[in-house]
Amino acid sequence: MTPDEIRRRLARDASPDWGHSDYDLTPEQRRGDRPLREAAVLVPIIDRPDGPTVLLTRRTAHLSSHAGQISFPGGRREERDPSPEATALRETEEEVGIDPSLVDVVGMLDIYTTVTNYAVTPVVGIVAPDFRPKPDPYEVAEVFETPLAFLLDSKNHHRHTGWFNGVPRKWWAMPYNDYYIWGATAGMLMNLHARLSA
Fold first, then answer.
1. Is this structure's pTM higher than 0.85?
2. Using CA atoms, how far apart are residues 47 and 107, in angstroms rounded to an integer?
3. Which of 57, 60, 63, 119 is deepest in the core (most CB within 10 A)?
4. pLDDT at 55
């Protein structure tokens, strides 16, 4: 799939039937009325000659939240951020050292609500292949790429069940080599799959 195809498909209106929260597989556990905090992540698609890949990070083990998990670069919106795109690009530069000038923003996915009370806007960007990651060692233990074709192949989309804070939960997972891509990251990738497959 070329960058132009990705741009065209993301330009279509989102379907109200597409999932966009940690509660998609457990609707009986819908969140209460606690206020949501705004955040944004970048879904960085690298335009590789052998096919596009998606850049992901593994968070460091000492962080107070989501330690060791696989995630997109991103974070909480700050007052100085004029838009979700600004938040995603700022956080990406801070976490993995990708200059915003190397990112061509091509669209956004559905806002994704997490069990930790964030409303996350996934911003999709095409990244020039000549970038050199410079991960922040405090937040990022590892930067790696996964083929976009693997992430879009429904054979690699698995439903898992477990416990979260004493409550049974179900979530999407896309295990790739030694990486367990799951939870909100996998949920956003499921939305990317729906948008690009439509």
1. yes
2. 16
3. 57
4. 97
Parallel, antiparallel or unpaired: strands 167-173 and 37-46: unpaired
Residue indicated by tokens 């799959």? 193
**Sign for the pseudo-dihedral over CA of 66, 72, 78, 83:** negative
For residue 53, the tally of other CB atoms under 10 A from its CB is 21
State which residues form the domain around 34: 3-197
Task: List the one residue out of 183, 197, 158 whose CA is nearest residue 72.
Answer: 183
Extract the residue ranges of the chain whose pLDDT is less than 70: 13-19, 27-32, 61-68
> Using CA of residue 46, residue 74, residue 143, residue 149, what is the dihedral sign?
negative
Residue 149's alpha-carbon distances to 13, 54, 139, 143, 152, in angstroms, are 23, 10, 28, 19, 5
Q: How many domains does the chain have?
A: 1
